[in-house]
Amino acid sequence: MAIYLLMAAVASVFMGGGLVMMKSRSGHLPVATGWKILSSLAEWLGDPMWLGGLGVQTLGFAIYVVALSQAPVSMVAVMMQGGTAMFVVFAVVILGERADGREWIGIVATVFGMILLAGSLSSADTEGALDARALAILSAALIAIALSPMATARLRDTGAAAAIASGVAFGLGSLFTKGMTTDFLARPEAGLVLRVAANPYPYLLVIANIAGIVLLQNSFHSARGIIAMPLSSALSNVVPILGGVIAFGEHLPAAPAAAAMRVGAFALTIAASAMLAGAREAAVQ
Fold first, then answer.
1. What is the pTM of this model?
2. How many domains does one find in the chain?
3. 139 is in which domain, residue-wise?
4. pLDDT tens across 132-169, in order?
5. What is the DSSP letter of 74?
C-alpha cells in the first residue's frame, strides 16, 4: 500500500509540473469556449510549451492509474494533494506569482495531511465492490453542482466557476479511473480489447479529464494559478473521498488512533485546499 501511495505522490509532482507549463502559456493562448472551442484547442495543441505540459501531465496520469489500481481512491486523492503544493511552489518560483502567509500555511497543512495519512496505513485496509448505480447517481448530481456556478457572472468573470467545474471533472475522472481498474482486475480472463470495449469507464474518464483540463486552462486566463489550481484541487479531492464511501464501500481503519489520523488527514487536506482557494484575488501575472 505504501509503495502505491508513494507512486501517487510522484504522479502528483508530474501533474503539478505539467500544469505550470500549461499555465505559463495562458496569456498567449485563446480561451476555449463557444463556437471557437475547436480552433482554440487546435492552437493550444500547436504550442510546444503547452503540448509539453500536457505530455508531462499524461506521464503523471499513467503513474496515477497504476497507484489507483491497488490503493483506495480516497487515500490516493489525499496523496495527490502534494501536486497542489508543488504547483504553488512552481508558480511562485517560475511564474513569479506571489504567495502570502495564508497560502504558505495551506501548503504546510497539505503536506502534514499527507504525513497523517501515511501514519494511518494498515495492511488490513480494504475496499468493497463497485456500486455502479450509486456512482451514476453521484456523477449526475455532481455535474449539476459543477454547472451551477456558471450562472453567476462574478464567478465566471474571476475564473472561479471554471476552476470549480474543473475540480469536479477531475474528481469524477478519479472515480471513473477506479471503476475502470476495478472492472479490469475483476475480469482477467477477458482480453484487453474486450475489457475496454465493454467497459464504459475508460470513455467516461477520458471525457472527464479532457473537460477538466480545458476548464482549468480557461480559468487560468482570469485567475492566478496560485488561486485557480487549489480551488480546482479542493473539489477534485472532495469528490473521490465522497465517491470512495458511496460507490466503492471504503471504510475507516478499525483501530481508533488510525481512524482518527485518517479522518484528520482528509479534513486537514480539504481545509488546506479551501484555505488556498480562499486567498486574496490578484491580477494574473
1. 0.78
2. 1
3. 2-277
4. 899 999 999 999 989 998 888 878 887 888 988 999 99
5. H
